[in-house]
Amino acid sequence: MNEICEKFKITHRNSTPYRPQMNGYHTTIRTSTGATPYFLVYGIEAVLLAEVEIPSLRIIQEAQLSEAKWNRMAKAFNRKVKPRTFKPGQLVLKRIFPHQNEAKGKFAPNWQGPYMVHRVLTGGALILAEMDGEVWPKAINADAVKRYYI
Fold first, then answer.
1. Is 91 within 8 Å of 114 (Cβ atoms)?
2. At the top level of its lineage, which domain of life is listed (predicted)?
């Protein structure tokens, strides 16, 4: 053992029995909890020096779980989201944003209008017009408007 340590320039240290710091206790998954003690205390997994250069099986599995989680979330989001399509001439209500002068607190209305869609631009932007025909100079995103039904 001493020859191997000298050949690879390893400093061999003996430790007392049941010494968690020397035995990797904090980075071993416990069967009772299904997690490492380090994760239970700090909320993240410990990064070992050996894992910096070469990813371990645990790191690879964690990356796969993270990717699967994102795919599942994207699938659930895409299932509920429907694209909003507007046509010129449709009536819409425009959201009142908190930074606008019309925002006056909790009991104020959240929508103003109705407005008419004057032109539909690419990327989901709309040019709105007042009901009297006055066209707004700035475009507004389709996320900030909703259909107005009479």
1. yes
2. Eukaryota
Give the range of the structural domain holding residue 22, as residue numbers without chain letter: 13-43
Helix H or strand E encompassing 59: helix 57-80
pLDDT for res 66 = 84
pLDDT digits (tens, 9 = 90+) for 27-42: 777 778 888 888 888 8
Query: Is 86 within the bounds of a domain?
Result: no
Considering the domain architecture, whether residues 37 and 51 belong to the same structural domain is answered as no
Tell me how many domains the chain contains: 3
3-state secondary structure of 147: strand
Return all residues near 26 (Cβ < 8 A) that are at least 6 apart: 20, 36, 37, 38, 46
DSSP state letter for 117: E
Residues 143, 97 within the same domain: yes
